[in-house]
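Retro notes
What went well: the complex prediction finally ran end to end.
Inputs used:
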Amino acid sequence: MNTTIAQITYRGMLGSRRVFLLLGLPVLLLALTGVLYALASSPERVTILLMERFGVAMMLPLLGLIVGTGVIGREIEDGVIMHLLAKPIRREVVSVTKLIVAASLMALFGALPIFISAFAMMGWEADVALGFAVGALAGGVAYAAVFLLISIVTRFAVTVGIIYALIWEGVVGTVAPGARDLSIQQWTLSIADAVSSSAFLKSQVAPGFAIPALIVTTLLATILAGRRLRSLTLSGSE
Amino acid sequence: MTDHSAPTTIHLDEVSRWYGNVVAVNNVTMRIGPGVTGLLGPNGAGKSTLLHMMAGFLAPSSGSVTLGRDRIWQNSKVYKSVGIVPEREALYGFLTGWQFVLSSAKLHKLANPVEAATKALNLVEMLDAGNRRIDTYSKGMRQRVKVAAALVHDPPVLLLDEPFNGMDPRQRLHLMELITRMGADGRTILFSSHILEEVERVAQQIEVLVSGRHAASGDHREIRRRMTNRPHLFTIRSSDDRKLASALIADGSTGGVRLGEDGLEVRAIDFRAFTRLLPQAARKADVRLLQVSPSDEDLESVFSYLISGGRQ
């Protein structure tokens, strides 16, 4: 971890208009929470539906995309990453620092609003808020690592990220039984389910698989990101 | 302070770089040592590709690029001795110039980053503008702040990719003076440019790259002399131009003579033979030479010749 790189990255993410992108989804979640709280007759079921369909299935991967591409993809695209890479610092340190920043932003703009939203609806009941918060934290870190890797690997990170987030995670991961096992969204729900005692929350993937899968995915993406950054080529204008 | 024990010569040995079927750099061997070297070539000649390989941002497809004996590619330690000023203009616009250069000093883990950043900004005359955000800077100011960030650790080797782009004449002159001074201090400075006047004014050594090939090396006069087949143009004024013309045309070292408004325009095929012949022929013909001036001595004509592949 390099604090100077982390400071620059935080400023780039929070000190610009990008922060409104990060705030948009959590604000929408909290607004939906307010509306549903006023209207819902069965808060537990509604809370879980809101968390599953919006918090975990939509907000988390999109935030991962914004954060993952924001912390490094943009810098690679415009070449400003050269300022960090032309220094006597191992590139693995650069990528791990970027991941730590991305993961912390996922916690702040993803897991925390999910917890606040679920807690506002249900309090501590059936540990739904805690379950989704823990799940979103673990899933958020994995998303950050995967999108960070995508940002380093391809210059079309946003397109690839949207396809991954919406098609794989959003459609294939929820519909195709085999693909469910390979979905960060399902692993997130599995952890939420393991922590919570709610009868309305039933995940498709066992936590015995989901937890190692999240750890392996995060570690693998981090290692690959470091390696790829080490071999990153930046072309000139010619 | 410059680390005098650090290697200061960049070695390129049979370096090639290709993208698919396109060869960007073709079997280039050169040494870039202390002093100012200009990497000259037209747009698309492969200058940036070569410079990126020297900066460790591109792996050679074949051959080796080293600083002293240290491989540059995938070796972050070399950046202790190397400063890089990339051509691309993008910077962290949300930082002030001061914050940007200070961050560079911190990333180099310097003992006194504040002092180093102050010194570097002072060197490029950007200390006063240092508290302004970079996104409010002109192109020239951005360029200078990039130079300050590259110099903050006082590197013995500095690589600059098209550093004069976008600078106004005063800023250009200032950077030229700075580069000249740093070269005189014993640093290895390499800058790329497609503008001949810049290279001519600043570089003691010129490496010419044409279509990915190392076309020539030396100062611009040396480059010219080494091209033995190249015809040289002279404008000669004498006491009797017609008489001198007939004397010169009889000799094999003269390719052509034209009587122009300013005197004789002579195309010399063999530079050395012609310079020997001219005074002898004039004496024999009893003609007084009033003025002999090479009409294509500027780098532009040397460069045009190299680009044409010697077909001129």
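What we learned: The two ends of chain B are 48 Å apart (CA to CA).
What to try next: split runs per interface for comparison.
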